[in-house]
Amino acid sequence: MKETLFGQPRGLTVLFLTEMWEKFSFFGMRALQVYYMIKQLHYSQADASLVYGLYAGGVYLTPIFGGMVSDRWLGRRRAILIGGALMAAGHFAMAFEPLFFTALTLIALGNGLFLPNLPSQVGDLYAHDDPRRGGAYNVYYVGVNLGALLAPLVCGTLGEIYGWHVGFGAAGVGMCLGLAIYALNGRWLPPDAPRTEAVAASAQRDHGASVLPLLGVALAVIVFRSAYEQSGNALAVWADTQADRLLLGWTIPVTWMQSLNPLFVFLFTPLVVAGWRRAAARGREPSAIVKMALGAGGVALSYAMLAAVAQQAGAAPVHAGWLLLFFALYTLGELYILPVGLGLFARLAPPGMGATVIAAWFLASFGGNLLSGVVGRAYEAIGAAGFFALLAGIAAAAALALLALRPAVGRIDR
Q1: What does the DSSP 8-state code read for residue 120?
Q2: Which of 191, 204, 293, 391 is most buried (CB neighbours < 10 A)?
Q3: Would strands 246-247 and 8-9 be described as parallel, antiparallel, or unpaired?
Q4: Domains in the chain and their CATH numbers?
Q5: What pTM was computed for the model?
Q6: For residue 195, is pLDDT > 90?
């Protein structure tokens, strides 16, 4: 099989592009969601934050059921196609105000089938001893963030200039493109394992020793994500009201600020992966759990810096360059925790339970997103400086929890 995209199998390119367009649709809608609720539906900031958290949490709750359904009945490919179709329908339904909650429900349900099954195919493109396997998830993560980079620039701009519903419609088109790429390139993807045999084989094993440490990691990630997810929630509100976005007499659309994170993912990933490969060649590459702790610590540092900036500025506008620096630090930390955690869960999944265990990783995202909606309600009450200091403390606590789990995870990650 020919190799492409950083020397990886061609199937990774198919999964990369499918995920890119799916995330274009997802983040295209998300770039507009909070502003749409506040400015068009006239929600208060606190209520918009809660709805945002409930929706974002629901998006990551449904995969636990979708993973089990696909492992036992549908298979990964069929689940992806059905899920993607539901998500596209949801994005198009966002163009109609009375269907707002119906649209959110369709996206959440479709995502439940789509989300755990696409990344669970990444590891099956490689032999277990293939040295490219670990870095493949970071390459895949570039696809996630390339879509997230383009989404605010396209959907956000269309929504702000031509109307919210045009932006939401563009998100639906993106989802359809992703489905077409996946459906037309199935020959490059790994086949689904026979479901009844895989589940039966898995049922004969006791997986408690490997599942319990992963549960601990998931709980730490829930705490981390309650701070991490504020970039599209309370931080987005602060950027809209406090950041000086004037450039050469033109005000940069606030939704473009949400492209900074995926832009830095795209720029930093090759450097990070190359650094890990050099460290591995010298026998000095950190373990997955240490990388994750370092990542949470990096995000804590980025929020601490923003707290100091907000405290110094008071009610005065803040130069947008501080947001640029914030997202650089924030993204570097993200690269050490989120794709690494996804790869850890995929690598340690028992046979026949790939999608289910990946879904458990996203279940941590559910808890974190739900908690982020609750945490975000404190933004107006304690002010920007205090709020960002709180987020720094939350991310730092997650880093310490991950370090405490290092011995338990090390016993199963060999």
Answers
A1: G
A2: 391
A3: unpaired
A4: 8-409 (1.20.1250.20)
A5: 0.73
A6: no
